[in-house]
């Protein structure tokens, strides 16, 4: 009976010993795991600190590895450079073409703003034909068909010196007139027109140029375009001159899609007050002759590029576009501007050509 307690005691002590042995082992294992985790956690900061210290302590002529790592710190600087390059290309994107479904109100506002801009660019715009009275103007305008105003200005002094009045030109020898007008091209047809209109003026209007549209268009060689040139510049009566430049530009600007000159005149006239018609004609024609050419517009030198639906049809590079600027008065027909005339002014607008009056 005494052995049983001993056995129990012995068994109890063995269990206790085993438990005691297991508990420290588990504790030790737990501590080891915690230390390992802590070591792992502390490894990266330690390495970072060591790396920082190594970088600071490294001499200027250190190993190649730190030198290779140096550009890595500059990588973020590459992004701003790329962003800057993208911004430089942005100005071309700032030209917003008017929507195809532009409202009537938006069209009127845009058209009038274009005219205001052109008025600032060409404040000196005027008829580029030389004349001293309505008779000289109507004859010069008829002669300007299919040629330049400069060529007409070179021809008319001799014509008016020999035939100063409608009566004189009406009685002229056609062959002599043809010889004078030969440089203008189509000289036979033009001779017939100027002699015919001179006879009409002498016989029907007492040798005076009429100041009414319905009378002017009855003269040989005189259409609505010529009549409005005369009315606007000789009599101060507003009119729209729909020549080839005017037709080309108003269609490019989407002021109208009409192709008939009379319909173009009506459509454009409805966008502006009547008092603006004559100056508007000068602004558009001057712009068409100098910048917005038929074959290759100088888009990069155009002051109304942000308002133009046709932007991009011509040269958009500013430097190349400046070489396309043309100037007629005082130079050869179609002569291109040369520096310094070709430079734009401080506001980015085409500077008035030298000699412009």
TrEMBL record:
Region listing for Disordered, in residue ranges: 1-68, 328-357
Record-level GO BP terms: base-excision repair, AP site formation
Cofactor(s) this protein cannot do without: [4Fe-4S] cluster
Textual note on the cofactor: Binds 1 [4Fe-4S] cluster.
HhH-GPD domain sequence ranges: 143-290
Signal peptide coordinates: none
Entry's EC annotation: 4.2.99.18
Binding-site residues for [4Fe-4S] cluster, renumbered to this chain: 292, 299, 302, 308
Protein name, per record: Endonuclease III
Naturally occurring in which organism (per UniProt): Streptomyces calvus
């Amino acid at each position: 009976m005494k052995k049983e307690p001993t056995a129990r005691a012995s068994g109890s002590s063995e269990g206790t010993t085993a438990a005691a042995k297991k508990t420290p082992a588990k504790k030790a294992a737990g501590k080891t795991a915690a230390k390992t985790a802590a070591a792992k956690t502390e490894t990266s900061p330690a390495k970072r600190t060591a790396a920082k210290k190594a970088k600071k302590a490294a001499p200027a002529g250190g190993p190649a590895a730190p030198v290779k790592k140096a550009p890595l710190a500059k990588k973020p600087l590459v992004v701003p450079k790329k962003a800057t390059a993208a911004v430089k290309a942005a100005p071309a994107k700032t030209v917003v073409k008017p929507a195809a479904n532009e409202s009537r109100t938006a069209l009127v506002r845009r058209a009038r703003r274009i005219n205001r801009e052109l008025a600032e660019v060409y404040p000196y715009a005027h008829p580029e034909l030389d004349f001293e009275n309505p008779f000289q103007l109507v004859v010069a305008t008829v002669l300007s068909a299919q040629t330049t105003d400069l060529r007409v200005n070179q021809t008319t002094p001799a014509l008016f010196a020999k035939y100063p009045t409608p009566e004189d030109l009406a009685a002229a020898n056609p062959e002599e007139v043809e010889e004078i007008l030969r440089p203008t091209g189509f000289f036979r047809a033009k001779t017939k027109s100027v002699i015919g209109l001179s006879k009409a003026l002498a016989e029907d209007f007492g040798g005076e140029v009429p100041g009414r549209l319905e009378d002017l268009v009855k003269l040989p060689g005189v259409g609505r375009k010529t009549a409005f040139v005369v009315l606007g510049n000789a009599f101060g009566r507003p009119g729209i001159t729909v020549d080839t430049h005017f037709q080309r530009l108003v269609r490019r600007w989407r002021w109208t899609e009409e192709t008939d000159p009379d319909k173009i005149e009506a459509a454009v006239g409805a966008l502006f007050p009547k008092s603006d018609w004559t100056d508007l004609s000068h602004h558009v024609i001057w712009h068409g002759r100098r910048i917005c050419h038929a074959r290759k517009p100088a888009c990069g030198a155009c002051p109304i590029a942000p308002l133009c639906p046709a932007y991009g049809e011509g040269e958009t590079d500013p430097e190349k576009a400046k070489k396309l600027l043309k100037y007629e008065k005082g130079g050869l027909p179609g002569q291109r501007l040369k520096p310094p005339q070709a430079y734009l002014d401080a506001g980015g607008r085409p500077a008035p050509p030298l000699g412009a009056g």
